[in-house]
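Please go through the protein record below and see whether the fold suits the sequence. Record follows.
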Amino acid sequence: MSYRHVLIIKGKVILTGQDFIIANVYAPCDTNAKQDLWMRLSQFILKNGDANVCVSRDFNSVRLEEERRGRNMIFRQLDAYNFNNFIDGSFLIDLPIYGRLYTWYRGDSISMSRIDRLMVSTKWCESWPNCIQVAHQRSLSDYVPLVLYVDETNWGPRPLRLMKCWSEYDGYAEFVREKLNSFNMDGWGGHVLKMKLKMIKCCLKEWHKKHSKNIKGKIFDVKNRLSFLDTKGEEGELLEEEAKELRELSVELHSMSRVHTSMNWQKARMNWIREGDVNSKFFHSMMSKRECQNSLHVINVDGVLVGIHHLNSQ
């Protein structure tokens, strides 16, 4: 079933027999056309109030001024007002977004907005209370993939794991503090903390790619540059800029080597916890082999059971 600007899918969950409706929206840009869409879509949602309803994708509108930023990105108050009225009047629940703050990026690192979202009915939340909305990293598209996870065995997000070496970088503590303070959200304390940890996790992944990922390759490049300057210094006196670079590279190499050692230590420690020490495996295998070689035989001598151990002296 489809209307203009919206594709509606009806189905049934085989496992539970529950009916569901998914409305995939691609809203127009014109304000009047959007208002007409909101009215028709709201009537459809209210008519199917007993069903599990999910309304998703590109609404071409934002709810708040903070959801749009960049050059020539005008916040239209009337458009936001109409969109919020549609959500409230349809009794839809706008799920908190995980992973990213925005869902559309122009690609200039300036212009971005949250015009995509996943909203569900009260009935949907009653049927699947553990659903969460996650915005993943975008690829070639201007839009990020939005995924609605519905998992009755969802135990919450994975724990936030940190690399000890991150603290070795100048500005790391300030980066974390600044990011955490920039996350503005309302709600009870536990929910806010959970959301902030989820968001800082994504920020730290990007920070890791820029600073400590492929540290081995970065060390290799620094060593090559040092070798080049050393060789040039053997042939003649280095320029002042080159001598300064040589000193800075030496400090950088020392710092990166310390970070690399710390990373290897932490990874080795994690592997030991999961898999055990290499020597432990060796001794365990030796003990198993010895147990196989030491067999216990039982024989009957004049009606008396006698156990005899055969021990191989190897």
